[in-house]
Amino acid sequence: MTTPLKALALVCTLTPSPAESSSQLMATQVLDALAEHGVTGEAVRVVDHDVKPGVLVDMGEGDEWPAIRAKLLAADILVVATPTWVGHLSSVCARVLERLDGELSETDDEGRLQTYGKVAVAAVVGNEDGAHKITADLFQALNDVGFTVSAQGATYWNGEAMHGTDYKDLDETPEAVASTTKALAANAVHLARLLKGSNYPGE
Questions:
Q1: N or C: which end of the chain has fewer CB within 10 A?
Q2: What are the protein's GO molecular function terms (predicted)?
Q3: Residue 202 lies in a domain
Q4: What does the pLDDT look like over 88-97, one tens digit per residue?
Q5: Which domain covers residue 95, as residue numbers?
């Protein structure tokens, strides 16, 4: 029987709901591609929640990160979707990475980080170059806090420099983006099922 998997997409747009978002669109496309492999998932637009600054898993009264974290811990695949701002990931995405730093203090009964055995992938959109650097920054940070990155674990779209078209405004998804997203999904699911069946060794 195929191992059931769950995915969580953290959408790091600066735009609150219900406004349209290119990052939200790309995250949805990744979740749809994962669903073709039997993965159930949901997206959380982080800016809609009061995620406090800090490096703990719970920053106290009013902090809404613990509820998001509960969904993350229940998922097998984490999708981080971010826009490109002046060549860098968004401030919301930086806040997510800061909060994930708290996972370094959280271990299971065998001394493993609770993020071990979870796969992380990236989705980046923007109108300027920067997707490769953002992906590199994301993968370094996510690996540091225990996630495993799958082969070809990023999909992205960058428009030409100095123009104003957003990803969400395209008439159709470019074939290169669609095929990359499809490969991302297949590889992430394959790796997540392997890790779910045989996690990393404990202490």
A1: N
A2: oxidoreductase activity
A3: no
A4: 999 999 999 9
A5: 5-197
